[in-house]
Specification:
The protein has helices at 2-17, 112-126, 138-150, 166-180, 183-194, 201-215, 226-234, 237-243, 283-292, 308-311, 313-328; strands at 39-44, 48-55, 60-65, 88-93, 131-136, 154-160, 271-276, 296-301. It has 337 residues and is of the alpha/beta class. Helix 3 (138-150) links the parallel strand 5 (131-136) and strand 6.
């Protein structure tokens, strides 16, 4: 007992004589690199800057191509809740004319071929190779065109909520108009269309509450996720009109003659065709797309629309994560054609 007391006394004295550690002290930081929270501007064509942001750390690296055209990365922020915790590193990228990137007034810049070269410059600027490319909606169109020219740099691709041709898109949009608009809705829409009153409250009410709430995002518009609403508010309509037209029913821009069906068999990398059964893209056509891609898997979210990443979220991200992990582990098996 006496020996124990001596030992305890000695330990107490040592503790009392130990240097006092100041509150809040930590190991000095030695990395002097300027940190930017993952944000990086990349020079395009030697005269413009586009914005990118790295999220997470991991050997699986994914470059996101947002939709629109003319929208921004904002609506994709839900990816932060699913990919990083699985060890997946991904990159936001606002295309030229969108979001945090430069927005030149020269509308001739907003065409498919130039955007393909822009993606390649972004890839080089980020130092990506053997990476995954993810394209949603118009971003899916862009991803197809990028893969047709540059797939040697790509390990796998996700074509989300996009068909492979404009004839199919406009044909299905016409069907949706008849299905979702009442006879009176059609009369009002056509009247406003003839007068080109595309900024009128009636016109926007028809699109938001009769079309978008059914095939874009099935969550009531008043409860749409904040990142999605933010993306709509930030949209560059000049880019949208130049490339598509005034809305889903008028494809008069650079997209109007786009058809990719015959080129799909030339995309050899593992590909996931991802969509929704209630999408503004024809589910039958997305299945056809998957059939024509030789090394693909197709999954249509049973409750999902064009924004299945929100209105059928668990199914959407389960399919996406499963694909990425299967390709990365060399266990990917394409659908039987």
């Amino acid at each position: 007992m006496k020996k124990l007391l001596i030992l305890l006394s000695a330990a107490f004295m040592l503790a009392c004589n130990a240097p006092e550690k100041k509150a809040g002290s930590s190991t000095p930081l030695t990395d002097t690199t300027v940190k930017t929270g993952g944000n990086k501007l990349i020079s395009i064509d030697g005269k413009y800057n586009v914005w990118t942001k790295k999220i997470g750390e991991g050997k699986i690296k994914v470059l996101l191509l947002h939709g629109g055209p003319g929208f921004s990365h904002d609506y994709m922020e839900c990816f932060e809740d699913f990919l990083p915790k699985e060890g997946i590193e991904f990159y936001y990228y606002d295309q030229l004319g969108c979001g945090n990137s430069d927005a030149p007034a020269d509308t001739s810049l907003y065409n498919i071929a130039r955007y393909v070269e822009e993606v390649e410059q972004v890839r080089k600027g980020l130092g990506l190779d053997n990476f995954y490319i993810f394209g949603h909606s118009w971003g899916g169109l862009l991803a197809m065109e990028y893969l047709h020219k540059y797939q040697s740099h790509v390990k796998g691709a996700i074509l989300s909520n996009m068909t492979a041709g404009m004839k199919d898109y406009t044909g299905y949009s016409a069907e949706l108009k008849k299905k979702l608009f009442s006879a009176r809705d059609i009369a009002v829409y056509d009247s406003l269309d003839r007068l080109k009153k595309y900024d009128s409250p009636q016109y926007n009410d028809l699109l938001m509450n009769k079309l978008y709430s059914k095939v874009i995002c099935q969550i009531p518009v008043s409860n749409w996720p904040e990142p999605l609403m933010r993306a709509f508010k930030k949209a560059n309509h000049n880019v949208y009109i130049q490339m598509q037209g005034v809305d889903e029913f008028h494809v008069t821009g650079n997209f109007k003659n786009w058809e990719f069906w015959d080129k799909l068999p030339q995309i050899k990398v593992p590909t996931l065709v991802l969509g929704g059964m209630n999408d503004e893209m024809n589910p039958v056509s997305m299945k056809k797309e998957g059939q024509l891609l030789p090394n693909s898997r197709t999954y249509l979210c049973p409750k999902g629309s064009h924004m299945a990443m929100y209105d059928d979220q668990q199914n959407y991200f389960t399919a996406l994560l499963g694909f990425l992990k299967d390709v990365d582990s060399s266990t990917f098996k394409p659908d039987v054609k």
